[in-house]
Design brief:
heterodimer; A: alpha+beta; Ubiquitin-like (UB roll); five-stranded mixed β-sheet; 5 strands; B: 261 residues; alpha/beta; Rossmann fold; eight-stranded mixed β-sheet; two-stranded parallel ribbon; 10 helices
Chain lengths: 75, 261
């Protein structure tokens, strides 16, 4: 499947801003998170697919656009 | 002569100087706040608020004076938000934080000085704010927020400001405020990045327990001040019944990107 992955903030460091990537059928948002080792950088904050908030268990569909932001909690 | 006619006589184009305040206090044996209240109730504006106009009208200035804001957390965000709300003229501030100033706060936290190390942040802030504007009521609560002790306090104020550094607590308070229809202004930072939400739950920002990217990216002063400014703007908009942030706002001071989600 073709999936557009958009990374934000610290997730971009050493990775990319936006890329079209290939994932097998049945892959979830968590597959993207794991493949890119995002949680080595920071715990997950916002996760959106096609502009809607979803859970990491969301099953990706052909052409989905996934946006990932690190968790931000400082005060 | 009555206080009001004295203030009307001494004011200059509707503005009342500090000197006039102090003279009125002496003549009419009243305190600074009483003078300011009398002025604002009667279409006079303390000169300190001159540059708020016309962003803030005279009647809005009076609305701010009557408002109460609870600032949860007196560290990076809370220190600057409190000062901005104090300077703009929010009349009642409640500052809550059980922490004392430590050396690693000096990079960013307003009112943290070498002399203030070891002192309660909430109390240092109160003293600092009273020195800026003695007309305001500033209450310091040098303790940590708990639902058992402080839930009712949330319902007694006009706006609750989230300047905490604990995502789990931020999220729990946001949910309670949403449920009880209490105005709530969220902000958080990590490195060059910040996020904001107003009168919203934080479940889409905080899916799991635990800290965020700030533990590795730190909290630089410019992001703190930037975030405090956005949160202060949201507080003022809420107090004055203006349109406020409806979506989550993600801000990136590295690339200068702003995303409304």
């Amino acid at each position: 499947m073709h999936i557009i992955v958009k990374l934000f903030a610290q997730y971009r460091e050493g990775r990319f801003k936006v890329e079209q990537r290939e994932y097998p059928k049945g892959a979830t948002a968590q597959t993207v998170i794991d493949e890119l080792c995002l949680e080595n950088t920071s715990p997950l904050g916002v996760l959106m697919v096609r502009g809607k908030h979803v859970q990491p268990t969301y099953t990706l569909q052909e052409g989905d656009e996934v946006a990932l932001f690190p968790k931000v909690g400082g005060g | 002569m009555e206080l009001l006619s004295y203030l009307n006589d001494t004011s200059n184009n509707g503005f009342l100087s500090l000197k006039d305040h102090f003279k009125a206090m002496e003549i009419f044996t009243c305190n600074f706040r009483e003078v300011e209240q009398m002025a604002l109730e009667n279409n006079l504006t303390p000169l300190r608020y001159k540059r708020n106009q016309k962003t803030i009208s005279q009647s809005e200035q009076h609305t701010l004076f009557k408002s109460t804001v609870l600032v949860l957390g007196c560290g990076g965000l809370g220190g600057f938000i409190s000062e901005m709300l104090c300077r703009i003229g929010v009349g009642n501030l409640i500052l809550m934080d059980g922490d004392v100033f430590e050396e690693h706060n000096l990079n960013r936290q307003n009112f943290s000085t070498i002399k203030a190390l070891g002192l309660h942040k909430a109390e240092v802030l109160r003293n600092g704010l009273e020195a800026i504007n003695p007309a305001l009521h500033v209450k310091s609560m040098p303790e940590f927020f708990t639902f058992e002790k402080h839930q009712s306090l949330l319902e007694e104020v006009d706006v609750v400001v989230d300047a905490l550094d604990n995502p789990t607590l931020k999220s729990a308070i946001a949910s309670l405020c949403k449920e009880k229809n209490i105005s709530f202004v969220h902000g958080a930072i990590a490195g060059y990045y910040a996020q904001f939400a107003t009168c919203n739950t934080l479940e889409n920002l905080y899916k799991q327990e635990g800290d965020g990217a700030e533990k590795t990216s730190g909290n630089p002063a410019f992001t703190v001040c930037f975030a405090a400014s956005i949160q202060s703007a949201e507080v003022i908009k809420l107090l004055l019944g203006k349109p406020h942030l409806e979506n989550i706002l993600m801000a990136d001071l590295w690339e200068y990107e702003f995303n409304l989600l």
